[in-house]
Amino acid sequence: MDLTALIERCREGDDLAWEALVRRFQGRVYGLALFYLGNAEEARDLAQEVFIRIYRRLDACTNDETFVPWMIQIARNAAIDRLRRIKARPSAVSVPVEEMYDLPSSEPDPAENLHRKRRRALIHRALEKLSRINREIVILKDIEGMSLERIASTLNLPLGTIKSRSHRARIELAREVIELSSEEGPSSGNGVEVGVSR
Length: 198
Fold this sequence. Notes:
By secondary structure, this protein is mainly α.
């Protein structure tokens, strides 16, 4: 079913349509929450909270073509709110990097799974070294696929600033990936490209 029809059925109160909508986007919302929060448990909780917000505000999204950017903005705002609360009450438990980014994969090949995990963990560690604004631009543009115009609107910054920062952020990310790869040796860094995958 196409997205417009699915959203319309959700607005009409169709529970099965809502379940289908959540299934379609839950991985994306969880992934975005994980990028911001860096903790799998917090990301799962936040994803549920985001879908509750979306459900309550579904009538506010009047243009179905902008649903995905609207959803991403809700997830981003919720993640920032959660980060503020977490900073107010720091966690006493340290989570190993391997657990933070252990996203489920549908790939059957264990060697390919291992390569993907290593590449994903390396990209995440490199992202953590970027400034907050550069990290956010990379996440919104290269991971979530938002246009520069939409990012400028979301972050409330001039488009020219977003364009120049986007270019610099990618260069900075590439440098961090190369540096981390060389520190970890050839077994973990081989074949890692600076294309960030969902």
